[in-house]
Amino acid sequence: MKQKRFILPESEIPTQWYNIQADMVNKPQPMLNPGTKEPIKAEDLYPLFAEECANQEVNQTDRWIDIPAEVREKYAYYRCTPLVRAYGLEEALGTPAHIYFKNESVNPLGSHKLNSAIPQAYYCKQQGVTNVTTETGAGQWGAALSYAAKLYGLDCAVYQVKISYEQKPYRRSIMQVFDALVTPSPSMSTRAGKDILTADPNHQGSLGTAISEAVELAMSTPNCKYLLGSVLNHVCLHQTVIGLEAEKQMAMAGEYPDIVIACFGGGSNFSGIAYPFLRHKLSGEKKNTRFIAAEPASCPKLTHGKFMYDFGDESGYTPLIPMFSLGHDFRPANIHAGGLRYHGAGAIVSQLLKDGLIEATDIRQLDSFAAGTLFAQAEGIIPAPESCHAIAAAINEANKCKETGEEKVILFNLSGHGLVDMTAYDQYISGTMANTGE
Amino acid sequence: MKQKRFILPESEIPTQWYNIQADMVNKPQPMLNPGTKEPIKAEDLYPLFAEECANQEVNQTDRWIDIPAEVREKYAYYRCTPLVRAYGLEEALGTPAHIYFKNESVNPLGSHKLNSAIPQAYYCKQQGVTNVTTETGAGQWGAALSYAAKLYGLDCAVYQVKISYEQKPYRRSIMQVFDALVTPSPSMSTRAGKDILTADPNHQGSLGTAISEAVELAMSTPNCKYLLGSVLNHVCLHQTVIGLEAEKQMAMAGEYPDIVIACFGGGSNFSGIAYPFLRHKLSGEKKNTRFIAAEPASCPKLTHGKFMYDFGDESGYTPLIPMFSLGHDFRPANIHAGGLRYHGAGAIVSQLLKDGLIEATDIRQLDSFAAGTLFAQAEGIIPAPESCHAIAAAINEANKCKETGEEKVILFNLSGHGLVDMTAYDQYISGTMANTGE
């Protein structure tokens, strides 16, 4: 029997995260204080983030960072996740390519986001924080953090992008099962929200607006920290458990990827699967591996944005981040892949793209759902709208192999399942979905 | 680090199903032809079921039945499933009991139902069938069969219990992603449905009514077979992969269960986890293991039904089955655990209950959701409303251990996740849920 899934025992859960900053020749530029334009130091971030996260954020020297034993213990609730050979998809495409996916959808909250929610909540708890707050788009990050907060006995408040709050009511319910307080953003509960709604009462929200509200709440609440689900260096760091496991599992399969693909919102799942493989490119050991970030055509910062210093949020509360950006006041269309509706890319990914070490491709919404539906029928897993973008990019590469006859090895990250995004599939099946971003 | 999950490699997927009928001293009584009252032979079932399934149904001699290689290959898409030590739940309860659960919720369609959908669809394909039809309650079975039918290129029509069709629209969408035709039952598309609606235009449906419609469609459509998701012997047979894996995994953990628990609708997930362990009780090797079927108080055939020959469906199309039953025209209350809203129990389980080899307990809806919410917060997995009943029963036993100080080993089957049942959790959280069946 051909092996379908490559499984690692609990003992193989990584003991360290991989910090790609240590290996980059051109380090990511520092974040800047928007007032003074001075580089941000870890201490400057302490009021907002857990101290350990702030330290990790600016760490450009330590290649490996220890994962606390208590975090590994919680990782064991769902890790290691399987690496899967997509025989069904290969057959459906008739491609000679070998397609693999890392299945992050098997974890309890249905996406990779838990990989960073657990350590962030843990570090907060360690330093005596009692309240945490965050933003969420589709709700994968909010669901993950709600659970992680519950694990460590923290009170959790989530600002959910209004359009997603309405499109995906089940994700709100999931957060509420874990006792999180969920508010659609922009809301009247913050000054940022009030300002945005005053300017545009019909504002549908974006990750940028929700971040503004969460940051304001964190800054105005005693003993409260803000936790971000993507973009920042320390979040991407935590996600490297994905690629570190995948590396071992690809070795079990006797292969090494020619192409590594992930969908792209702020960069967390792309970084997670890509960086551990990228380290072999940076070392010169594997020079030809390609890395493709698949972003929505309606929010194309990597393919159509500009490299600039920009705010991470709509209202300009955050430090200035060196990023490919569409501008912090960019209003993405209401696509279902709520997790990809973000104007900018993380600093590390932006530097890697500038340096030609990674590539990007943009995918239209209808193409993403066509790919996701084909994948579901072939592999039996209904993918998250975000993940559909990675699948579409993988299918594009597999189809090129069909033309050339090349037996390339393609690895993509299945960042989450789409079981609470079924209204989107309903629209796709019934032919009423807009091809936003065409 | 304490081991949390016990994982088996793909090579350990069982090669044979366990047929408990061969080991029972008192065999289950035969199904009867309702007209002649003669015992049903396999051939009598050929018009309705795949021939191999009909043969398995009446097989009382072969202890082990080979799993076709093609079925094992598809099982490998999600099996082996993990056995998990519920440390989080133990801690939340403060119990000395060791609680384990077999996590059938990790499979792509979110429940154990795929274990029988795959072989049933496979056997149909093998004998040249082109169309399959079935009933579904909450939609777990319908979703599993829709996917299995797609795997083998079969057209699939599903009658979904109307109240579930309305309560759980996402499950309908899931079936439609796999191109199934989904009809709420009772419908006007069959004579059975018309008769039922004529008598009661507001009939909310039940598994009994949906079975009548599906059977009628199968009997009146060329080259079409009817596939059932529970109750029947061959369905329970296929589910024994759950317990066979769990047996090995409990050995990895160095333990053997004192108590085995599953929720109970028609019997498929209970049979799946229980029979492989029951064989050691039947052999005299493990005399004291207890087996508990957890059914809803609103549909209590095991605890309050009578052993009788009864129809499997509302309209009386099926053979007479020897079962604990509430009567085939029993109308269960509209609880959210749609998969448990069935009037009768399978023939094997009914015989085992008669013989005192297993026990049953009934759980009220609010108690089931209290248990499910506690479990979610402790283990990070939102359980299906059906599975909440098993969890409630496990918690009851664990609480007894807390009183007595006994370190009992409790194993329950987590038959599915509740991610598409969030409206039910909404009701529970907001305090608007009815304690139906009190």
Q: Could you please describe the fold and organization of this structure?
A:
- The structure is a homodimer of 438-residue chains.
- The first copy, chain A, is an alpha/beta fold and 438 residues long.
- The first copy, chain A, has two domains: 5-12 and 70-110 and 234-430, 3-Layer(aba) Sandwich (Rossmann fold); 112-232, Rossmann fold (3-Layer(aba) Sandwich).
- Chain A has helices spanning 42-45, 51-57, 69-75, 87-93, 114-126, 140-151, 162-167, 169-177, 191-199, 207-220, 233-238, 240-252, 268-282, 301-304, 347-354, 365-379, 385-404, 422-430; strands spanning 5-6, 16-18, 64-66, 83-85, 98-103, 131-136, 155-161, 181-185, 224-226, 259-263, 290-296, 306-311, 320-325, 359-363, 409-414.
- Chain A has a seven-stranded mixed beta sheet, sandwiched between helices.
- In chain A, strand 6, helix 6 (140-151) and strand 7 (155-161) form a beta-alpha-beta unit.
- The N and C termini of chain A lie far apart (43 Å).
- The relative contact order of chain A is 0.16.
- The model of chain A has no long low-confidence stretch (mean pLDDT 95).
- At the A-B interface, helix 3, helix 6, helix 8, helix 16 and helix 18 of A face helix 3, helix 6, helix 8, helix 16 and helix 18 of B.
